[in-house]
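Homework help thread (please don't just give me the answer)

Our assignment gives two proteins as sequence + structure token strings and asks us to describe the second one. The first is just a warm-up. Here they are:
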Amino acid sequence: MDTWEKQSRVAVTKHPLRMSPFFIPMMISNMASAQVAMRHGLMGPSSTVVTACSTGSDAIGSAFRMLQHGKAEVMVAGGAEAILTPMALGGFPVMKALSTRNDEPEAASRPFSATRDGFVMGEGAGVLVLETLEDARARGAPVLAELAMEAALRGARIDPDEVGYVNAHATSTPVGDLSEVLAFKRVFGAHA
């Protein structure tokens, strides 16, 4: 967003031909994953998922399917966000998606709370290295987590009560949190 905003200003206030010659390469969505792959000598499937707030989770799901279908032995997957820009800081409040609890910032993010009123913007990144359960066990690695929801439960042939953790989106918005709770209850029943 920052690149887009800065180059848009140049195009409007000066001239489109004064924009950076790196504008397009900096805007191509898959450039980050390509740079990581090149820097670390990673071979095999490399793609980028762009699905807003679920991008990181969807990238992990995509990597999981690559492993599941034997397209790779190990996958690096995750997401990153750098959205603290003027347009984003203006766009989310007019959607009424941001918390307005400015008098008590430590309690502003309240997912699943009856008093939730939106999310708190921030920037960050998270990346996982995924491998099949068999490969992890074969090399004696500790299994830290397994991926699952309804279709994944069927694919993994496990029961909902075998799941001990669900990574919630948890935006603290009334619509978002409610839809997640309903999905958890539908998939996990009383175990939710």
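The one we have to describe:
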Amino acid sequence: MSRVGKKPVQIPTGVEVKIDSEMISVKGPKGSISKPIPVGVLVEQKENEIIVNPVSMSKRNKALWGLVRMIISNMVEGSVKEFEKKLELQGVGFRANVQGNELVLEVGFSHNVKISAPEGIKFAVEKSVIIVSGIDKELVGQIAATIRRVRPPEPYKGKGIRYLGEYVKIKLGKKAAGAAGGA
């Protein structure tokens, strides 16, 4: 049984929820977001809360039960306050700029890497920290992962793009490894 799926999602004041047979739409002060409801899960609204239940107790439906409840919870939370992910640039000469709705990365390649923001996503740069924000938690995380993938941190000097606070284990180089094994 899903412990997450059993809890109802509270709807704060100022948020409108519309449930069709196949879609759920949430509209709040920060914006609106819609997602499809998978087959096998019932979503219903009672007063100021949303209740999610599986159609049957098959393994697939039980797995979707908690997932759908968390997605709806994130939709409601995102319509009230935006989600954000922070990434930091580490490396000499690594820079990031925002030009319109594009993020321009200078990360040691012969060319600049441009990443355009999909609808609902905003970029901001403060010194060497990139901030990705939006109301859709899933999309914010996906765009942050795409940015990190441009230049992931390498294990010898730690240069690259990493999440703020992410620990990268630094390996010993050939010189240090050879000195330790040869003595």
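TA reply:
I won't write it for you, but here's a hint about the kind of observation we're looking for: Residues 83-163 form a domain with the Outer Surface Protein A; domain 3 fold (CATH 3.90.930.12).
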